[in-house]
Design goal:
Immunoglobulin-like; four-stranded antiparallel beta sheet; 8 strands; disordered N terminus; DUF3244 domain-containing protein
Length: about 120
């Protein structure tokens, strides 16, 4: 279930690599995510172990607004989240598997991006 999500989004997030809860445990996946110019969140997962993975997006109240499972047999997975209809606020993106978790805090805002204008006068 992909929820349509915020169009005039000012979202700053760049995510790379997975975060291990225990550095001695081999990681089950590599994950990366970034925001596109058309205000979508792109998530990429490359599995390094034969394990299922879950991708979650939660709002500030810790309610799951998006959830996707990646099966054990899938080696690679790519996802493009359209955030047009999410309300402004804080969100958390999490990619997790047995003992390995990758989390990134996101802040969605519909405030218009300011353009800087300059006037150069020559006399």
């Amino acid at each position: 279930m992909l929820l349509p999500m915020l169009h005039k989004l000012a979202l700053s997030a760049l995510i790379s690599a997975s975060t291990l809860s225990n550095p001695t445990t081999p990681k089950a996946f590599d994950a990366s995510a970034f925001v596109t110019i058309d205000n979508h969140i792109r998530v990429s997962v490359v599995k390094t172990a034969d394990t299922a993975i879950e991708v979650l997006l939660r709002n500030a109240e810790n309610e799951v607004v998006y959830q996707q499972y990646i099966g054990r047999k899938d080696e690679k997975f790519a996802l493009k989240l359209n955030v047009d209809q999410l309300t402004d606020g804080k969100y958390e993106l999490e990619v997790k598997s047995n003992g390995t978790s990758f989390r990134k805090q996101l802040n969605l805002s519909t405030q218009p991006v300011r353009e800087t204008s300059r006037v150069v006068a020559m006399h």
